[in-house]
């Protein structure tokens, strides 16, 4: 069964593309900036499979009849496909001529932030690279493709084998310093910065067989093979996986490009920390989220919580969604938010609810202070304040706990905007480094009442919290979930205790005949994206090149872990980046190892220094306004936007006991919007 958009079968479209890519073992959808509206509408209706691995990307409507891939052999057809797909215009140049607007406000798609390079950091552009990609054939085949061999004639281990041998764990060590909110803010932040666009189709191009039903490396399918002695999966089954969509013209020999370009992947989101998870990453998405019925600058609202008078997120509209898979348990559709993954798990949904409410709270207060402002001005000023609060919380309250004193010193002080810095997300960051947050996830979502005791319905195993908005509607709202995030210790990342079994053995079990394994997915995705091995990044980060496994002893002191790496990989030159980053010893006072610290500081420095709208950049806010923005805290956002939470710690990332370590919301500083708007003037130019 295939989804249809404007009468065009995805199967047919996939077959068309396969004609000039199958021989290269490369699925080749393309960027299509001209159809952003249709793209957004379509991706909002995509299945849980797409939510897990990125978004389906479709090219402009090809005739639905009379086209098969083996017909497409002539230059005429290649030219036609290039024109229809947007390949001929994939280096789009946005219009940044409205200086009045672009000096004051961000675009929703991230374009025109850097006026010299207007597409840097924009949505639907390629991830950036620190190192040359590492593909088996040099330009598009993943390392280990078809169980092929790599360095020193040693085969790469199956990702699932790496997961079961050294990543999955039943043992959990609580973090004695930081709460589960440390993990949750990391995920919410990640969904503001990156999401990889998945293949054009979830079905095999060669014959239309769904990738979920075949165990082959036949584009776009790249199934995760399961070892014969796997502890869970029997009968030689595999796990569903499809390759990420490549940037148009990359990863192929092309009559269109007249050259060979290594396969690159597409970031669906803006790279900047701009609250795109609240507002969307295209102009079309932003308009779908806004309440345009009045001149109040609000986001659309859902049902009212009777006890508080506050709104839940609106429901997504359209065909049945992944949140309604089991009508007996989940009759509630997915919530609609700025990022399509808002329903992925309930803690994340609670965060989206908080920040959608925060926008509407700020916009409402601005309207009361400035009754002459129109809806667009209220919206953009509220959006600017919300984005600044997120930046401040991330860099002053969250990152110091992750990176510690050593990492913050490596990050360095802010010295102002640098237009020569590309703030685009690094492929290695999105595909491996920032996935360190998976090691911080508890196997349960805790739900606590006003006295921080379990609610009547109890805590939830993580696999039952996936795509379950009905639990917010019917089991106490967002407050119990929020208390469970800031009132419970997080999971400590111990090198021998990495991903809990809810993630490696039960991931999205409702959606798949074989439950997925997040660790195996991370490793497979790294190979799909041509992420170089761990040793290459050691050299980049000024660590020694490890010729032998004993050379890893300074960063991986545990001999048993080094022996597992030796047994799995055979050579240090083959070790995948993700598992190696996860087993490095923590730098004292941090939650990361040395190579991971290097990669995180590199990315977060670029995100800060390459953002013209960075909240500390002179001219973005006046000194008086900036003083108020610096009052922002996640604790205050929770106080203002939860339903009834009145007691919490000043720093919700820091473990505290009830009630001794907590204070009243009345004692949590707030951003004084009176002081913020005092320096604002009505815009002298229209906002479109």
Automatic annotation (TrEMBL):
Record keywords, A-Z: Disulfide bond, Glycoprotein, Heme, Iron, Metal-binding, Oxidoreductase, Secreted, Signal
GO molecular function: heme binding; metal ion binding; peroxidase activity
Needed cofactors: heme b
Top-rank taxon: Eukaryota
Binding residue positions for heme b: 438
Primary site of residence: secreted
GO terms of biological process kind: response to oxidative stress
Database matches in InterPro entries: Haem_peroxidase_animal, Haem_peroxidase_sf, Haem_peroxidase_sf_animal, Peroxidasin_peroxidase
Keyword set includes Ribonucleoprotein: no
Cellular component aspect of the GO annotation: extracellular space
Record-stated family: Belongs to the peroxidase family. XPO subfamily.
Protein known as: Peroxidasin
